[in-house]
Amino acid sequence: MTTKRNNYPAPKKHGGHTTEILRLLSCLSESYSPRHYVLADSDKMSEAKIRSFEQKRAETFSESQFSLDRIPRSREVRQSWISSVLTTLHSILYSFPLTYKRKPDLILCNGPGTCVPVCLSAFLLGLLRIKRTIIVYVESICRVETLSLSGKILYYFSDYFIVQWPDLKKKYPKSVYLGRIV
Fold first, then answer.
1. pLDDT tens digits, residue range 132-172?
2. What's the gap between Cα 80 and its chain centre?
3. What is the 8-class DSSP label of residue 106?
């Protein structure tokens, strides 16, 4: 077991995904520090939620550390599939240097499109034998019967793929069903 301080990116999008990931992070000990949040460059709401969460966390854990990083949004709602490929590649180009710089031990994410480029960059670092990162993907509680697009992609790249509904576990055997966790 290691005693070094580890890096834990948590790629985020605005709204419900941010609320869900902050609920997950609230259960983690102080050893999960520093935390590096990755947000879409146009996301302002999540930044406010994260700063508020971290301010409250600092009251309990005095040495709590975090940072906020931004990357281009990989996909807008209702964006065409073809243009989504291009914008996601653009986002990966921004994510790779960031992921290389941070060299995270663990990535905990829960479904926003922002997590796909970060996770793929981390996966590539592992393939290149630069840094092995554990990727934990938690599918959103609102995904009852089907996976999100991020889930469909990261199912194949994550080390742990957690679902919150038993029907998803039946459809996706690699997944881990833990019940409702957020």
1. 999 999 998 878 788 988 999 999 999 999 999 999 999 99
2. 23
3. E
**Strands of the chain, DSSP E:** 8-12, 35-40, 66-71, 106-109, 134-138, 160-163, 176-177
Q: State the Cα–Cα distance between residues 35 and 22, nearest whole angstrom.
A: 11
Q: Which residues contact 118 (CB under 8 A, 6 or more apart)?
A: 9, 11, 38, 71, 95, 98, 99, 107, 109
The one-letter amino acid at 67: S
Alpha-carbon distance 140 to 134, whole Å? 19
User: How many residues belong to the chain?
Assistant: 182
Contacts of 164 (CB under 8 A, 6+ apart): 138, 139, 140, 141, 143, 177, 178, 179, 180, 181, 182
Helices and strands (DSSP H and E) totals, the chain: 6, 7
Q: Among 27-31, 71-75, 120-124, which range has the highest average pLDDT?
A: 120-124
How far, in Å, CA of 12 to CA of 115, rounded? 7
